[in-house]
Amino acid sequence: MCTSRCTSRCTSGAKGSRRWQKIPQRDDEDSPHAFTVSYVQRARRAAWRLRDVTFLCADAALCGRWVRTLTEQLSALAQRPRRLLVYINPLSGKRHGERIYRHKVAPLFSRANISTSVIVTQHANHARDHLRTEAELQNYDGVVCVGGDGMFSEVMHGLVLRTQRDQGRDHHHPDQDLAQTGLRIGIIPAGSTDCICFATVGANDPVTSSLHIIVGDCQPMDVCSVHHGDAFLRYSVSLLGYGFYGDVLSDSERRRWMGPARYDVSGVKKFLSHRYYEGTVSYLPASDVLGTPRDRAPCRTGCVVCQYNRPLEEEKEGKLKMEESHEGLAWRSVRGKFLAINAVSMSCACPRSPQGLSPAAHLADGTTDLILVRNSSRLAFLRHLLRHTSKDDQFDLGFVEVHRVRRFRFTPRFCQSDSELDLQELLQEKEQKEKEVAGSQARRILGQLCREHPACCRTPPCASCWNCDGEILPHADIQVRYTTLLLLFLPLLLLLAPLLLLLLAHST
Ligand SMILES: Nc1ncnc2c1ncn2[C@@H]1O[C@H](COP(=O)(O)OP(=O)(O)OP(=O)(O)O)[C@@H](O)[C@H]1O
User: Fold this and answer.
1) Gap from CA of 123 to ligand 1 centroid (Å)
2) Which of 9, 59, 92, 463 has the greatest number of C-beta atoms within 10 Å?
3) Ligand 1 centre from 388 Cα, in Å?
4) How many whole angstroms separate alpha carbon 247 and alpha carbon 434?
């Protein structure tokens, strides 16, 4: 740490060069002129803090020269934003969004000479619609959202949709090559869960996020576009979950009044109901890529795997066409009964699950980790879920498979005609029905017991719903494609030396 006050003076070096030297502390009267340099220091875990060091000197001209030179050097750093468009959701989380921004974030932006236009949202989708239609994006170097994952999703949708419109791309078409957004997004966490902030920044701390924005590096990020037939449904950046995670979300929506505890209540309820869903998952495996979902190393900013796997802009179309031309060969299908189908485009780490749903998922390699959890006993599923909270491998279980894919489709069983189901499955079903008839007598005896636990007697419903970054999709039958579209304010030097970058120098 460099918080102690030190005095400095200009001396002649061995070769006659003039340079600053630290000397023991002296009285201020000897050095009436001073300037303060603010810099970023890595604190505990992934947190960043702002520190100041004040230099005193007796010579006013020299002091002024130092301030001018440092200021010039700082303004020459092209990656640092100068103008930001900020959206605040006043109702996020505990409704502290505005306060967090005014007390913790705005003072830092102002010290770093960043000018801001602040919009406090008045209703849901305010930020999305403003960005999509009227925001004068050419006036800004980035967009900041103050809120939770829902707010990030709004800003991301607004920016991506606006970019496609400006570039004349048809975002409804599932095969349309989408354009990358030009502006970077910064996330100031103020929501109830803030999973996206935690998974990218490594901490849910408004000061750390603000400093990341000020330092101004840039990290690309994958976005998946979800379609139903030829209709665009939504974009997603973290989790697309069907079955267990879809059911938990739809149940928790009915318990909003409980606050964040609703996820726990719905999670337990849906775990006990133990529903499986039938359908076919078809996927296009990511071939020629570095790494697998079973790697132990997590993705970090500046990740070499992402850089290697991500097709360059000029290669994109060719690569896609190549995959398409081999479509019949490359696509694979899995038909079965699933407790959960999860497509994870980032680790989805959060304080409760520090490793996340797929610890080695990559932020910006144009792929997703498709996790298929087949029907199994409650105990086995519980083992799988509990492994998310420890360092154990959640994929090392017979009923769980994971694939790194560029695209996938899902068709729930009720959408398939009988002719699509193969003979083997029909025979299996027949066998199953015969067993059920034999078991019905036994069930009658246990009727009383089952009435108290209705889930075990009920026929499973035809379909679950998709949880798309915390929003419910209106269709179960979807096709999904991954592209690196977004840019985040994330530093490339997360793991480097404690003293990262000077932020500001000013005379005092
Ligand atoms: N002024 C507003 N009034 C009502 N809803 C709003 C307003 N501004 C934004 N929203 C909506 O509120 C929803 C939830 O917001 P947000 O994600 O910021 O908080 P959260 O739900 O508490 O956090 P998290 O998503 O991390 O759990 C978003 O989907 C957003 O569309």
Assistant:
1) 9
2) 92
3) 26
4) 30
Q: What is the DSSP letter of 350?
A: B
Residue 247 Cβ contacting ligand 1 at under 6 Å: no
Distant-in-sequence, close-in-space partners of 208: CB < 8 Å, separation ≥ 6: 46, 47, 48, 201
Rounded CA separation 142/217 (Å):
11
Does 122 contact ligand 1 (Cβ within 6 A)?
yes
pLDDT at site 455: 42
* Residue 69 CB less than 6 A away from ligand 1: no
Does the structure show a pLDDT above 90 at 138?
Answer: yes
SS3 200: helix
Mean pLDDT of 64-69: 89
- For the cut 50, the answer to whether the pLDDT of residue 2 exceeds it is no
Q: What pLDDT band is residue 13 in, cutting at 50, 70 and 90?
A: very low
- And the tokens for 288? 């020629």
Q: Is 192's C-beta closer than 6 angstroms to any atom of ligand 1?
A: yes
pLDDT at 5 over 90: no
User: What does the pLDDT look like over 236-274, one tens digit per residue?
Assistant: 999 999 999 999 999 998 888 887 788 899 999 999 999
User: Which of 367, 389, 200, 201 lies closest to 293, judged by CA?
Assistant: 367
Pocket test for ligand 1, best of 86, 88, 92 (most atoms within 8 A of CB): 92
Q: Tell me the CA–centroid distance for residue 402 and ligand 1, in Å.
A: 32
Atom 11 (ligand 1): residue with closest C-alpha?
124
- Give the separation between CA 293 and CA 345, rounded to whole angstroms: 11
pLDDT in tens, 94-119: 899 999 999 999 999 998 989 999 99
Per residue in 413-454, pLDDT tens? 865 444 444 444 544 555 566 556 555 554 554 444 444 444
Q: What is the distance in A from the centroid of ligand 1 to the CA of 205?
A: 18
Which residues are paired to 35 by β-bridges? 55, 507
**Has residue 3 got a pLDDT over 80?**
no
pLDDT over 70, % of the chain:
77
Domain covering 223-418+451-482 in this structure, CATH number = 2.60.200.40
> Is 222 part of the annotated catalytic residue set?
no
Residue written as tokens 């005896």? 445
Residue 62 to residue 41: CA distance in whole angstroms: 27
Cβ contacts of 456 within 8 Å, gap of 6 or more:
450
| CA-angle at 69, arms to 68 and 72, nearest 5° | 85
Q: Which of 149, 217, 369, 469 is catalytic?
A: 149
Tokens representing 36?
Answer: 């303060």
Ligand 1: distance of its center to the CA of 453 in Å?
A: 35
pLDDT-above-90 percentage for the chain: 50
Among 87, 89, 350, name the best residue to mutate to test ligand 1's pocket (greatest count of ligand atoms within 8 A of Cβ): 89
Yes or no: say if 48 and 494 are a contact pair by the CB < 8 Å rule.
no
